[in-house]
Amino acid sequence: MTATPKRWMLLLVTFVLFVQTPADCQSRKTALPQTTGPISLDIPARSDSACGGAEFADRIAGLNLKEREIKIINEILSGNVPSFCRNLQPVTVRQSIDSRLYEFTYYTVCDYMAVGSDQDYLYVPVTPSTAQYVADQLNCSLPTAKMVDQIYVAAVLKLRPQPIAPSDQMTTVPVFKHHTDSIRQQIRKSGYERLPDAILAGHKKDIILSNKIYSGDRSYDRVVIYGWHKSENRPIQPVYNGHNARYADYSHGVRLVFKQADLSGDACKIADILKDARLSALISGEGDIQKSRYPALAISSVKKQIDPRRLHFKLYQNFPNPFNPRTTITYFLLKPAFVELSVHNLLGRKVSKLIDKCQDAGEHCVHFNGMHLASGAYYYKLSTGDTEQTKKMLFIR
Fold first, then answer.
1. CA distance 119 to 262
2. Other residues' Cβ atoms within 10 Å of the Cβ of residue 21
3. Which of residues 241, 271, 303 is at a domain's end?
4. For residues 138, 291, 227 and 233, what is the CA-based torsion angle, rounded to 10 degrees?
5. Are residues 155 and 248 in the same domain?
6. In this predicted model, what pLDDT tens digit does every residue of 246-296 receive, in sequence order?
7. Where are the alpha helices (DSSP H) in 120-212?
8. Global pTM value
9. pLDDT band at 327 (very low <50, low <70, confident <90, very high)
10. HSE of 39 in the Cβ direction (CA atoms, 13 Å)?
């Protein structure tokens, strides 16, 4: 639907944070991928000076595991990823539960996480705590085994698994690079012209969410993997939690799915669906999953070596966008802060105030209803002192 020119109005949503100490605050939690144009993760644009996958492989080849994963995290969060690692596509599931038909839509990244450009990239297997950390920073979740199956069905190009003979080199960068090159060669031989917004699947095992992360059958922290499909419902790798949490070999991949989703027209969170004894059946084949994340483990020490400016705050794209009449704005605070969220027009006149109070560190969401406003473009701005972030959203009646 398109509004007439006279009804368009440019408004400014101003989001102001004044950082205070925990003692100054008494208490504050949950936004979605861009839906104006291509849907994508909230990652900076890739710099022209960013290294390609081959060069990055050389840089990290001699590092230990922790050093390597610090480098990988910083490259991903700085935007040095191919377009197919930032673009998301919807996956829609329709299923009857207790005689009621549900339609559930979530958004998946088109491929497994990689570092580099569209032409020169390196798939980067990582440990589950690092995968969880990256997911958290990008307002994402890891998939379940059932979601891996659903994504495989939705894939435009289904690649065949390409195992490498087992050896003590399976967890090394040269083997990561060799496997990446074999996948790229397989894509070329398929005759498929790769598009940045097309889902590819079948070429990696996924790090998944599962009750087996915390099950009592192991006495150590572990990673749970699944996938490497030969065809629909024929994965080489069944759900497996036999590797410890510091293990990441060439076959492992990190595919992110956006935290928020749509359940029969209502916004929801994947974590909440997984906790629900009934609705979890939409995306879980093992019942409800109450703890749908990996523990921090080694990432607690990794976090200290990541650029602190990336951790101070994060403003996510609202969802849905465009919207009518409701949308959700999500942001993350590293520290407790005094938050003011208000809506202004370009002349500075305040239309409404949404938040004006102290809030705790963590993720927060604000539900905004634009019913009383005219159709138009809005900007919401996150400000902490002299640092700001601004996002655009669109209200269409």
1. 33
2. 9
3. 303
4. -120
5. yes
6. 999 999 999 999 998 999 988 899 999 999 999 999 999 999 999 999 987
7. 128-137, 145-154, 173-189
8. 0.74
9. confident
10. 21
Shared-domain flag, residues 237 and 325: no
Find the helix or strand (DSSP H, E) in which 56 lies. Answer: helix 53-60
Q: How far apart are CA 131 and CA 135, in angstroms?
A: 6
- 281: helix, strand or coil: helix
Structural domain total, the chain: 2
* 116 and 208 assigned to the same domain: yes
289: helix, strand or coil: coil
Please report, for residues 141, 339, 353, the alpha-carbon distance to residue 387 in angstroms, rounded to integers and kept in the order given: 27, 14, 21
Q: Which domain holds residue 72?
A: 53-303
In angstroms, rounded to a whole number, what is the distance separating the alpha carbons of residues 78 and 75? 5
Q: Which residue has the tokens 């005759």?
A: 191
Instruction: Tell me, yes or no, whether 310 lies in a domain.
Output: no
Residue 44 lies in a domain: no
Residue 309 in domain: no
Q: Is the peptide bond before 325 cis (omega within 30 degrees of 0)?
A: yes
> Quick one: 244 and 135 in the same domain?
yes
Name the strand (E) or helix (H) holding 92.
strand 88-97
- As a whole number of angstroms, the distance between CA 158 and CA 121 comes to 19
Which H, E and C letters describe 198-263, residue by residue? CCEECCCEEECECHHHCCCCCCCCECCEEEEEEECCEEEEEEECCCECCCCCCCEECCCEECEEEE
* Token duo for residue 60: 């990290």
C-alpha R_g of the chain: 21
- Are 108 and 237 contained in the same domain? yes
Give the residue from 279, 303, 327 where a domain finishes. Answer: 303
Residues in the chain: 397
Query: Could you count the other beta carbons within 10 Å of the beta carbon of residue 227?
Result: 28
Q: Note whether 84 and 27 are same-domain residues.
A: no
112-153 pLDDT, tens digit each? 999 999 999 999 999 999 999 999 989 899 999 999 999 999
